[in-house]
Structure prediction request, 638 residues.
Amino acid sequence: MAILEAHAVSKVYETRGVATRALDRVDLTLEEGEFTVLHGPSGCGKTTLLNLLGALDDPSEGRVTLDGRDLAECSAAERSELRLHKLGFVFQAYNLIPVFTARENVEFVMELQGVPSAERKARTDAILAEVGLAELAEKRPLEMSGGQQQRVAVARAIVGRPELVLADEPTANLDSATAGQLLDLMEELNREHGVTFLFSTHDPLVIGKARRRVRLRDGRVESDGPGA
Amino acid sequence: MGLELRLAWRNVWRNARRTWLTVAATVFAVVLVVFFVAMAAGIHEKMIEDSVRVASGHVTLAGEGYFANRTLEQFVTLDAGLQHTLDAAPGVRGWAPRLVGFGLVSKETDAQGVAVLGVDPAREASVTTLARRVERGVFVSEDAPKGIVLGERLARNLGAELGDELLLYSEAYSLETAYDLFTVVGVMKLPEPSLDRSLALVTLADAQAFFVYGERVSEVALLADDADAADQVAAGLRGALPGAEAVEVQTWAELMPELVQFIILDDAGMYVLLVILVIVVAFGILNTILMSVLERTRELGVLLALGLRPGAVFRLVYLESLLLAGLGLAIGLATSIPLVLWFQAHPVELSNELAGAMELIGAEPVITWKLKPWNPLGSVLTILGVAALAALYPAVKASRGRPVDALRSL
Prediction:
């Protein structure tokens, strides 16, 4: 079943009157349970496509539908609701809330979703144990390593039970051992909990783990096929 | 505690030094505002009370046309009906009938123009402080007829001492020439120099006999609970007075417009300075919140990306501003209110040139403070209003940020 669909999506940026076409009529459909990677050289449009699929930006042409809803027809508040309930995000620079502890960062999305306190606590304890950070629950981001922060970010991305997690270069700031552990974790979450992942990356390690690989070049889909 | 409030509170303390500097500026402003507004209120109240308790009372009742002409032709008959009305009037703490006439007082070859105030000694004490202002001798008394009390400057100009006989000369209500000898029984010191140079007190009975005035009086001075209650008392009296007699009722503010003007001008000068101070605080809060928002563009974008609604981001920034202002207000009020209350209980007596300046405007050389409820309440509303205004631009800017910036800025 398709969770997300992009139909002939294009994105044109204009800077001082100069138009740059970052994406050119891209079609992409993501099915439930996929573990997909978007890869390609720098500037090929990976992050731009991820932003459009994540309801963070608007396409210049074409349309994106999430769970059958056309994002162009949604207000800012409706998009917030869609992101809150349907999507999870993992960013390259972790982007945890620095004034919150690991536990509070993980609980944040659930608080927005209105999950009751007792359930929030139980789910947070469980997810932090699953990502191996139960001992660091009360630490703030600056008291943790990059790998630990990214694990918290993954926990935050999936604890709200989204249909799709969008991860933009999630291993870019991690050493290879830590990146490997994180990928194993996400693969396990995908396999055992059915969480759908879409990565944007250069990292061969991530590309190697993906079961579907979409290669972009010059804003177009160059290839789309099975991975590992 | 709600998520937004918790996040706002933590954000406020993210840069503790900057927060404390903003809080310190707010505290400084609150203390100055509360202190100086209370000082102005105290000084003005003292000026009003000094004037009221020396002369007019909070409210004055007189015959029709008296306030415009101030001659013996305009009078009030203090009959039993009027006395009952005055006794029963709500908010009236005391009332005193007076006869006001003008004449010449002479001692040997020296003569001075005087305002002769005939007072009922017992009733006068319930309205004015004239009896307490006697520095030498005694106040006029029904037991010592033909006694006269002079202002200190008037006595000095006449060269009059206690026990001296003075000739009072005027024109009676009957248009006959009125003259009689009075004995100086007291000398009083009045704060207003012009009054001190011209006021002579005799008993009401002596004045009525001297001016051939019968049972008539020129005016009745009334004391209300405070100056602010004067309008209410005056309105009540106007409604309650018997219609048979044409009388006029005026408040201290109507009788002393120059004092009201002085207070308005004095307040205006002070408020201009305080407004400048509050604007400085507003820019301090604006700077802190705006810097805080600009530094967190990516973070606010991430919050939006995670599903926080734009309205919630707006509220978050607003809360941060109000928390900053609230903290400054809490510390400022906790500092300024005890400080003002202490000064309210311990007025500062002035000396030398400052004392002279105060006396020139008819006030005692004492600085007093008066903490009125609207003072701290006004400070709270002003600072919160300023904080709300200062936060508007940063809050709009933050809530209109696009979540894509969070990813683009990676």
User: Anything to note?
Assistant: Chain B has a mean pLDDT of 88. Residues 94-222 of chain B form one domain.
